[in-house]
Fold this protein.
Amino acid sequence: MPLRFNFCPICNEKITFRIEMDDIDSRQYPAPVYIVCKSCKKLSTFYVDSLLRVSYKERDKKPGGIKTIETS
Ligand SMILES: [Zn+2]
């Protein structure tokens, strides 16, 4: 289960989360997954590629995600 470091697109705090293939709908890449920032508690959408690397992110909830991931 890969561990990812990134930054919240809303508050820019560093976040850490674990993601696995079950967390995304892999019929289409980049695949959206919802991330809840541990600092600001807000939800954003991260898009990951087939290796679960973050391609880009949006500040709000976009369609197509199947899971919400907590951060630490
Ligand atoms: Zn945040």
User: Anything to note?
Assistant: Strands lie at 3-7, 14-18, 31-36, 43-48, 54-58, 68-70. DSSP finds no helices and six strands in the chain. Residues 44 and 60 are 5 Å apart (CA to CA). The chain has one domain: 3-70.
